[in-house]
């Protein structure tokens, strides 16, 4: 948090607003895994100031929060916006949303999705609305050159996982040739640019290409054949993880969960052709084991945790697995795939796999 | 031409129009390399009938013609629409355009580009306008299952060339990682689906994936880093070829020209890194020769001509090369790349290379 004050973006944006005679009221201090309380505060203050638009300046958490504010401004009470995340209220209007992106990861700058957390309920839920697409998003790769490496890797892993979530809806890659090839193109871009940025964080081309790949990853371009539907089970498992442990960043949680998710299903013979195709196209391998090994190699190379224990920096005990599994089952849904809602024993097995190297 | 009457599409479309109380006036008989005269006839008839929209039912030539009609309906005289193709008039309004696509190739269903031919002037010129985007395009892969194989290959080669035109603006693929990877994904899709369709023209998944890849090929998705600009020199050379020889189909001409275009520049050391990257990613090769050989293998495998002589079914003499080169020089531009307009001697050299196996 607070990076926009250090990297000059805040000054650039506010000067531009002033020069154009646009009044604004600042709300700052959005944390990773953005919290409901901050959103309620922002809605209340925005109503007091009679705001008629929302400008998000930051990364995924800021955008997620601003989408909640844009929707919440059209509701009677600030707290009512949580009903959208519980799927008990459908957004029919929102204030116009504008975006200046400072970290590439969530792809929230090119879609109408938002995630919000309630620490008090241990819930991290999401929803999408066509009313929450940014009117305009400004992306400047140079702004991201000063990001700490762990934040860059979180973004890299998030973009790869978004692309994988769309690909994972498909068991036969031949049915889905265009989507698989474009998805592979996006992931390859992230892998190449990630390795370049690890060597030189200021490489403009790598920042710019990763920035665009991260937007594409969640724009749905690789998901046309599925009508835009993704699997989202890895995201659901991660949102639970962050809900229980709010200090776990989204990208770090995804990195630990994705290889385990693949391993769990591959061992049952589920989507074998897809794992083999991705092993070949991404890592020059042949088997699902090559895909899992390729992803874990990537995480280790980038200094990312590969186990729950490394993620939480302590031993994981049975009670941790039980708590995660039970919290996961509190979700109103565990993915968007109509044909496959992850059952309790599978969620438990996947969390358990995350304990192993 | 006339396929919409055989494959049932005409009946389906006209029944739908009648059921919804939409009056229509039919203009049929659009040929490949669509001619200006037919467009003038259509505009005149559409004005007589007071048409307020244009419905294109067919492939690229029909769409190109219908875009000309949509623009021409807002001009005083039907013939004035040619001024747009000479870059002497800029379109500021057009009738709304709707599309039912019956062959995937030109990508005209997802952009505002149009090409038109004047046999009398030996000119085949194109222009783009945001006013000429279809309001809505309907694509059904099953309609294409009955296409003659040579028409399918024309479409395959056109889609590959469109993607290549965007990639060919770039000399250093590292500057352009996301675009190259997504472009490669599109071309790989076309290669795989083409081989499948050669074995089984009714393979639904291959038709559907090729259909979507062909739309993506000219949607600009792989050209974001170039601001949507492409090279378009291969297209310019082909439009000249079709202008001089109106029986040459666009896709067949592109197939002959593209390998020669690459060879001409590669021999001079122009864009070496790009050719080597594409040789590796598309055909598992290493050198520009591998890229050219891979493309020619593809053409031979699909039964496509690889020389001007095979294309025109006669010996090519010096007078042919001279005529093509001179006609090429009559173009108002020979590509959209501001930094590189193909000079006369280069055009001549490329046409000459097209004579060799």
TrEMBL record, chains A, B:
Ranges for domain Alcohol dehydrogenase iron-type/glycerol dehydrogenase GldA: 3-141
Alphabetical list of CDD domains matching this protein: BDH
Signal peptide location: none
Gene Ontology CC: one annotated term: cytosol
The Fe-containing alcohol dehydrogenase-like C-terminal domain, residue ranges: 154-329
Pfam short name (any one): Fe-ADH
Superkingdom in the source lineage: Eukaryota
Keywords: Oxidoreductase
Name the UniProt record assigns to this protein: Alcohol dehydrogenase iron-type/glycerol dehydrogenase GldA domain-containing protein
């Amino acid at each position: 948090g607070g990076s926009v004050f250090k990297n000059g973006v805040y000054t650039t944006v506010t000067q531009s607003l002033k020069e154009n005679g646009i009044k604004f009221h600042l709300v700052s201090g959005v944390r990773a895994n953005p919290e409901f309380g901050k959103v309620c505060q922002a809605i209340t203050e925005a109503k007091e100031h009679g705001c008629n638009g929302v400008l998000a300046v930051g990364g995924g958490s800021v955008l997620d929060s601003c989408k909640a504010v844009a929707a919440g401004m059209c509701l009677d009470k600030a707290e009512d916006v949580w009903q959208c995340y519980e799927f008990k209220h459908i957004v029919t209007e929102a204030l116009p949303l504008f975006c200046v992106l400072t970290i590439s990861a969530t792809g929230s700058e090119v879609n109408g999705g938002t995630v919000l957390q309630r620490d008090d309920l241990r819930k991290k839920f999401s929803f999408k609305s066509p009313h929450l697409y940014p009117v305009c998003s400004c992306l400047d790769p140079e702004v991201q050159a000063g990001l700490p490496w762990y934040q860059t890797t979180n973004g890299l892993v998030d973009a790869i996982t978004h692309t994988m979530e769309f690909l994972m809806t498909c068991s036969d890659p031949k049915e889905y040739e265009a989507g698989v090839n474009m998805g592979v193109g996006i992931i390859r871009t992230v892998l190449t640019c990630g390795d370049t940025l690890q060597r030189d964080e200021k490489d403009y081309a790598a920042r710019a290409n990763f920035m665009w790949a991260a937007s594409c990853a969640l724009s749905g371009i690789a998901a046309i054949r599925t009508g835009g539907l993704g699997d989202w089970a890895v995201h659901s498992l991660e949102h639970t993880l962050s809900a229980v442990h709010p200090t776990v960043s989204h990208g770090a949680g995804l990195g630990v969960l994705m290889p385990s998710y693949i391993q769990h299903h591959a061992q049952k013979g589920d989507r074998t052709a897809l794992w083999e195709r991705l092993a070949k196209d991404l890592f020059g391998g042949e088997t699902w084991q090559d895909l899992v090994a390729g992803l874990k190699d990537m995480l280790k190379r980038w200094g990312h945790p590969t186990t729950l224990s490394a993620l939480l920096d302590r031993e994981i005990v049975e009670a941790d697995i039980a708590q995660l599994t039970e919290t996961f089952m509190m979700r109103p849904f565990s993915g968007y795939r109509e044909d496959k809602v992850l059952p309790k024993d599978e969620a438990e097995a996947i969390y358990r796999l995350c304990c192993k190297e």
